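Supplementary Text 2. Reproducibility record for the structural model of the 191-residue chain.

All settings were left at their defaults, and a single model was retained for analysis rather than an ensemble. We include the record here because the model underlies the residue-level annotations in Supplementary Table 4.
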Amino acid sequence: MSIWTLILKMGGWKLDENFRNYNGSCVMLGVPHTSNWDAVYALAAFNAIGIPVKFTIKKEWLKFPLRKLWLSMGAIPIDRSPKLAGQERLSMTEAMINLFKEKQALVVLVTPEGTRSRREEWKTGFYHVAAGAGVPIGLGYLDYKNRIAGVSKFVTPSGDMAKDMHEIMDFYSKIQGKNPDNFSVDKRYYP
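Retained model, structure tokens:
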């Protein structure tokens, strides 16, 4: 039994294994994000079902003594500084799109709420990254009410962001976070 499976078992979690061993590229959402425990259980679930998630981190955070720890957890350093004099700094979206161009199979975990506090408007960079990189959006989740974790489906950006976001919000509207009062779908795209 792996450490990841043990963590889930001790927490009473079941796995949604619909996409076990997914080996394509995608922007993977980690929703809801209402507790520090979400990171632990999400990493455990993705590892237990064989999805090698990575997450982006500022390159400055990858210094001794924490470099090896961050990298072992799946951190990918982001360097947004200009490569040539006179160039503008890359946006986070551009930097992430470039990661997908550089790597054949990449799953990048994103928490679009951006905080553990209640947000009724999500950060939408994940959608623009997926559209720009030509990869789907994986709907990863932790449903604390039913103690189920995993990936339920993938949404491929169609170019109609409002329609795609409504589909994403419809899915997450049925999921309950550890602290339910701290979670909301994006009200711009869902009643």
